[in-house]
Write the structure tokens for this entry.
Amino acid sequence: MNKLLEVEGLKTEFKRAGGNVMAVAGLDFHINSGEVLGLVGESGCGKSVTSLSIMRLLKGTPGQNAGGHVKFEGKDLLRLSENEMRKVRGKELAMIFQEPMTSLNPVLRIGKQIEEPIRLHLGFNKAKAREHAVHMLQLVGIPRASEVMNDYPHQLSGGMRQRVMIAMAMSCHPKLLIADEPTTALDVTIQAQILDLMKRLKEERSMGMLLITHDLGVVAEMCDRVVVMYAGRVVEEAPVKELFANPQHPYTQGLIRSVPKLRQKVKRLESIPGNVPDLSHMPQGCKFAPRCAHVMPECMTTEPELLAVGGEGRKSRCWLTQQSEQKGGSAV
Amino acid sequence: MGRYALQRLLGVIPLLFVVSVVVFMFIHLIPGDPARLIAGKEATLEEINGIREQLGLNNPLWQQYIDYMGRLFHGDLGNSIRSGLPVSDMLATRVMPTIWLTLFSMGWAVIMGVFIGIISAINRNKWPDHVGMITAISGISIPGFWLGLVLIQIFSVELGWFPTGGVDSWSSYVLPSLTLGAGIMSMLARFSRTSMLESMREDYIRTGRAKGLHEFIVVGRHALRNSLIQVVTVAGLQFGFLLGGSVMVETVFSIPGMGRMLVDSIAFRDYTVIQALLLLFATEFILINLLVDLLYGVLNPKIRFDSK
Amino acid sequence: MSQQSTAAANSSQGSGQQPAAPAKRKSATAEFLRKFSKQKVSLVAGIFIILLVLVAIFGPYITPYDPSAPDYDALLAGPSAKHWAGTDEYGRDILSRLIEGTRLSLAVSLSAVLIAAFFGTILGLLSGYYGKWLDRLIMRGSDVMFSFPDILLAIGIVAILGPGLTNVVIAVAVFGIPSFARMIRSVTLSAKETLFVEAARSMGAKDRRIIWRHIFPETLPSVIVNVTMKIGGAILAASSLSFLGMGAKPTEPDWGAMLSMGRDYLSIAPHVVYFPGLIIFLTVLAFNLVGDGLQDALDPKMKN
């Protein structure tokens, strides 16, 4: 399988008065073409910063790139000029965001906003761009598509706006869609509809997807593989079924335990004791050690590597799992 | 939009009423007998009594107010104490110079102010921002009459590029408009900077960048559109500042407008003229604010497409 | 976790001013002073204002010449070693007149703004605290005042009362009242809802005590900022009125009046116009800069 996106040693730092801090501290993962990769973790662990770093959309945030590579079909996005990068954004890499209520410009008509990338990247004239935009709106299941073209965002519901965002992102046939918590702000029933839509479009267009979420229910439903992030690092990587069946890292285990068994209510994943560590006060060894139930002396002093463990395509960053692997025993 | 517009329109009526009462009361608030004031210093007792009779000053105040309003609706603003001429005739030639002056001033102030605001916002905390904001706070602090005199000294007296005063040609308006607009320009520069910085933080700006739009489009189309709605509102509210400033600028540049007329009539205690001008200025200000409110409704889709 | 990092982490949530408990107020003041002194421009402007105040106090002792003594040998003389800012049409030393005028200008503007602040604050407190018809009455009243462009309102008032500096003070004060009233009203409204006012009321405190002891201190920072911001405008307004011949008498060493007199000699002796205007400009600029600095220090949301 060929790799669509390879993230290698990606580092993003936040400018702070008392010295810069690492929000993303050397991230490694890849996405195969046509695959849905889930990026999971509590809020504050660097998921969104990662997506913005890949898209190079850190402008206006305190973040700045501090090294690493983001190879998209072999070319390193971090080495492109701003002009070259603009040709990639919206065309080959598209993105949708968590807040459909504020992600659309309130004073521009829906049609105008969808036509923008179409005219820019596909070079369509006004009439053709409009036709294509209407087609995209129909594709994402918006009724009266040609009327909605003349509406303003505030005239649509949250679910409808997220559909518009998806239509806009998909309009130039991107090879990779980055979706940052695309359903978090929506009602549960609407969530399911939007996820179904994304799944359908992904199948139809054989597009890769990076799905960022804190919701393991969404992960189970959508993803092929999962990368679990903690404190700006990958702590575990696994195919989705194996991750749920046999989580290796204590953090992943905690996340899975904190999901309510019957998914009536999507709770924030906060049943792991303690909080994500502050960026400027990172623990010295394993970043999860202060919250970990299985903490050992070496966890406090030395950070473990992300190493293959427990089976095909699996990795974990934990002394305990790596030790038990060496002993040939099973994980905790 | 319809309901919004109606609300605004109805809101103006009580305001106009109270303003008319205040302006009507003006002549009664001046210490002394209004009839004597209007008749002038050398008037005989008969003349004073004649005026009192003629203007109905013996009637109760409410009756006088109704008569006053009745005359207003027929375009009768009373006669000048000094010249005896109808105030409305005297005003005829005075209105246009003031209108031109305020329009030109507002025009360049909005364009330049928004321009500086944008440049400052996109270069926040860099040198263009500092230059822009120093210009802006200086513009707010500079006394208009002094700026006018300095401009006359440099560009009329020394360089001879523009006339020192009057309204004989369009070039006569250049220096006065620069003077009058300086303050508004500065306020708008500061305001559009803040407003642009707020817009630039919005999520839809990130969306625009994620679409691959050029930063120029992101700023010029997405951020600016949102900011302009607020800038227009603020510019409108500052119109009163222009009307007030026109008094000063018309005096400095000897422009025969309404502001100059006000200063002259105060010097000659021409109370009927003062009264008429105060009413005109206040009404104009209220109507401009109404217009701005309506314009805001048109520009802001949230209001335009709200309740039918 | 250090305070700095939490502050940075919370900065996105906006730092709405929490009504500090009295014990905490001291540290809030220290924090405020620290922030204010970090703004170098405002600091320089503040020093300039302190100098002006000293000049206003010690004016008569430091004037190089008698401000009203004519020197007919040096009419309209340009700046020289003898007369640093030149002389006016009677040969009076302009620098001495400017120094003498400092007291006049500061006194006029400060008293006008303080009068406006006094009445505006009372009206704002009443309006915000009692609400209902009183609030509506006061707010509609200020709407009416706002419908006269401010300087025109002042001109109208001077037209009624007659020219003179006292009347200028009254006129400038009157048009300053509504903006104070509105601002204090909004602070009062938010302060009224805070816990300790609720608590005071539930313990049966009288309205007057609640307003005076609990709400008024909350409005104080806003009053101070607004007073500073308004002084610049008041100096401009007062000197404008004097320039139009509605304020100070030509014999008084008022900055605006000096400009007005000097106007006639603009083409032959521009320094007569330049220096008084420059000092008005710098003074207003200094007050505006300090006002900006105070506002940023109290409301840092806008700065970053």
User: Anything to note?
Assistant: The interface with chain A takes residues 200-214, 217, 221-222, 225-226, 229, 299-302, 305 of chain B (CB under 8 Å). Chain B has two domains: 2-87, 94-306. The radius of gyration of chain B is 24 Å.
